[in-house]
């Protein structure tokens, strides 16, 4: 079969690979009908996330048709079922899964010893990601083996298109969780840094969760236009001061809820000297991440507010103003997404017509064009916001 | 097939797909040039750092050893940047560095310098490399730039089939149900 394979920094290729095989009775194999390139795939593309190996298959946003099931799937799935695959692999049985903390499932990281050493405790296995999270082959491929398939799936109805439901596997629940963990009140201003795909979902989620006003922050006109379409007031940080504008919009109180949809690769600009400092340290391997957005959120957030972090951070960050955060009494909520905690509710909202996540798709191409689309997406060319691949 | 990818198969389980035939790289020619210039820059920088005395002697620039070492550090920084995802910045910093190198060499291209011929050769080499750097920098910038295309207007993509006002109504209605249930 064909698959998009990581060969090194900025080197993803469409390779011929062997087909996946059932190796555990809880496995299933799907024929992938749609998959997508995620913003966090770019961190792997740039080799900022440790423990990627040449030969790793990319992709953690995918859906398809079940073509083979192991004996242990026990009727939870059958051939022909149409499923979205959550990017977090879950057993459904461990203590964390029972608490719905699915992204820290205790059993699915098959390289648990690595996870334990690096993170202190293992996290869940993830598709198409680093070997620290199991090194599971991803779904930017024609076929995918889904481990723990009896628990790791979302069945979707036939009357919805792939484009409407594909993002239930990652960016929609990720944006939703980012907003939900803010505990939004009807009087709240929610500020969202980064109007990429997760930011767009967070903007709409905050609106659906009843925020008084949502503010979207980015520097790319096409992304800001999409944010505004979702009901947000926009701030172009290349043209105006984020801090001053947020003060204006909130009666000088600051936003009660701040969401970081940027993560480790914040925009580098001479106008924001800390970003240049971070980039220089990152180049010298003295810092993993560029946390400009975190610093800005801590500074501007209203005291007793919430900082929500769906953006990916990989390791060590520098110059975080903990004194500000502590004295302002801020609450930090973060983590990989507990996808399955949210999917039933989000699927209902799609079926009810509250939201149609397909709005975010700007490019649809075949799998063989995937490597070039990584570049287009990374360089933000052709107003690219979300790429869907059709294997 | 890719030998490194084959070696990494020891980390994979029996049912995992394995690379049979690697596809073509989509890296452009200018990305390749940036990589070569990056490594060249690092190598040259190391030579300038450790061989500053000999370089100064060969160019009749005694007393300029520290300057040559500083240029070596600059070359290494530019090289690292050229090998990174910010390769445009790396290559343009190399172009700027070439300008500094040429200015410094011109100051040594004096009739009273007994090593004037060596300086002339060095100037020719630096000029040739500067040309490569300019070609690479312009090529990489063009390949990765978003300039030249007008940003699209996505203001018709609300994602709310019934509109944003209806989305706010959904929120009020669901919040009302929650507080009612409580």
Automatic annotation (TrEMBL), chain A:
Q: Per UniProt, which keywords does this protein have?
A: Metal-binding, Oxidoreductase, Plasmid, Zinc
Asked whether the UniProt record includes Oxidoreductase among its keywords, one would answer yes
Family annotation (InterPro entries): ADH-like_C, ADH-like_N, ADH_Zn_CS, GroES-like_sf, NAD(P)-bd_dom_sf
Its required cofactor(s), as named, are:
Zn(2+)
Q: What range(s) does the Alcohol dehydrogenase-like N-terminal domain occupy?
A: 25-157
In its UniProt record, a GO molecular function of this protein is: zinc ion binding
Its domain of life reads: Bacteria
State the coiled-coil residue ranges: none
Give all residue intervals belonging to the Alcohol dehydrogenase-like C-terminal domain. Answer: 197-268
Hey, which family's this protein in?
Answer: Belongs to the zinc-containing alcohol dehydrogenase family.
* Name recorded for this polypeptide: Glutathione-dependent formaldehyde dehydrogenase
Q: Which organism is it from?
A: Mesorhizobium ciceri
TrEMBL record, chain B:
**Positions of transmembrane segments:** 119-137
**Top-level lineage group:** Bacteria
Instruction: List keywords of the entry alphabetically.
Output: Membrane, Plasmid, Transmembrane, Transmembrane helix
Bias (Basic and acidic residues): 169-182
| Region (Disordered) location | 143-182
Q: Provide the protein name.
A: Cyclase dehydrase
